[in-house]
Amino acid sequence: MAFQSPVTSPFDCLLIDLDDTLYPGNTGIGPALRRNIDEFLVARFGLAADKAAALRADLFRSHGSTLAGLIALGHDVHPDEYHSYVHGRLPYDVIAADPQLAAALQSMPQRKILFTNSDRAHMRRSLERLGLDEALFDGVVCFETMNPNLFGEDAKDDDDVDRPAVVLKPSVHAFATALRVAGTNPRRTLFLDDNERNIAAGKALGLRTALVGKRARSKEADYALETIGGLRRAIPEIWGGAADGELQLDHNVEKNKSMRAELDAVIQPTSIQA
Which GO terms describe its biological process (predicted)? Predict the structure, then answer.
């Protein structure tokens, strides 16, 4: 039986991004992360600083992340090695505790799933700085959740065996994993993220979408809010309140149908209990 919200709300579940969503995008974590990636490429591959920065930008555009691009190109980089370098040296002290956010999360009657491309260690350190207990969430979907085959006995070192591709938002497989954990109908699931590509993918798969960190909605976003602190005002429907206006209709019906069909191909209907 599908999970149903105990309040009069269109949402049974919230999929919530972490970085630049649960904490503000102006903390300095993003620029520090990019510097760390550049330094990793310099140290690991002997690149000049400008070449490292250019490669990072190119791999992000083409593969969604530097790590995904390196693995796709055949480089023997273990995710733990990469994450310990680029996340392990971040200035986490710039993330401030947010008691009001903790209270807001506790007051939400829906299932709440943390849905991040980051690794588990980074997720836990970020939540700790925010003053959020992981137990506030009903489930976590992070790098390790989406990429189990990159770890342990499933990680193949044999040169004759291709390593599995890295799965990250905005791929259909990433959303399929999140929806399996959520166990809810995509059309009654609200997805909050700061990245417009991720928001577009979520919308095309039938999720309701909220773009965080922006004043104006992108065309695929049903809602926009400058900070997570404005959530109750921007989306009162979470708590059963009335919306200020009508939600947008899907803008590209054929594209949305195609992506939903792709989602159906990788996730069993019973797994989301729709």
Answer: xanthosine biosynthetic process
Q: Quick one: fold of 13-25+96-272? A: Rossmann fold (3.40.50)
CA-to-CA dists, residue 111 to 16, 95, 107, 185, angstroms: 11, 25, 11, 12
Say which amino acid occupies 242: A
Contact indicator for 183, 111 with CB cutoff of 8 Å: yes
**Please, is 139 exposed, middle or buried when counting C-beta atoms within 10 Å of its C-beta (0-12, 13-18, 19+)?**
middle
149-192 pLDDT, tens digit each:
998 655 555 555 567 899 999 999 999 999 999 999 999 999 99
Going from N- to C-terminal start, the domains of the chain cover 13-25+96-272, 29-86
pTM for the full predicted model: 0.86
